[in-house]
Amino acid sequence: SRRNSLTREAERLCQPLEALTSVREKLSGVIKALQSIGVYSAQGGSTAYDALLGGGGDSQGTALALSLLCRQVGITCDVVDGQKNGESHFWNVVETASGYRHVDLSREGSVTYDVDQTMTELGYVWDTQQVPACSR
Asked: Are strands 124-125 and 77-84 parallel, antiparallel or unpaired?
């Protein structure tokens, strides 16, 4: 039942994006859709269901939700299991026209598409052997 509800919600959120053709437009649309429902909550649950239908997800739930919607619109998107400032944290790496970029929807402020160096400077640590390089 939860899986069906999650699938329907992902389809609903992505339906307005079907006419878009560029990865940039689709990714922007997915992120706006997620932000409009308040996908991130520091105290939220760790599943895409929590993020999309349960009142908000933690970093893992938010990253899983972004990955789900990106796949729905044909964007390559991986979930990164790493650390931020020494604590367990999840975020995404998406494939853009400029190459792979890090995206963390749990960060304050506007969404940025960061390269490895920027993420390292911000206190993120991850297994660089398992995650595509995000460089200029």
From this structure: antiparallel
SS3 62: helix
**Sheet of 87-96, strand order:** 99-103, 87-96, 77-84, 124-125
Yes or no: say if 135 and 120 are a contact pair by the CB < 8 Å rule: no
Q: How far apart are CA 72 and CA 20, in angstroms?
A: 13
Question: Tens of pLDDT along 67-103?
Answer: 999 999 999 999 999 999 999 999 999 999 999 999 9
Which residues are paired to 102 by β-bridges?
93, 114
Answer whether 0.85 is exceeded by the pTM.
yes
Residue 108, judged by CB atoms within 10 A of its CB (0-12, 13-18, 19+), counts as exposed
Q: How far apart are the first and last CA of the chain?
A: 43
Structure tokens at 95: 């494939």
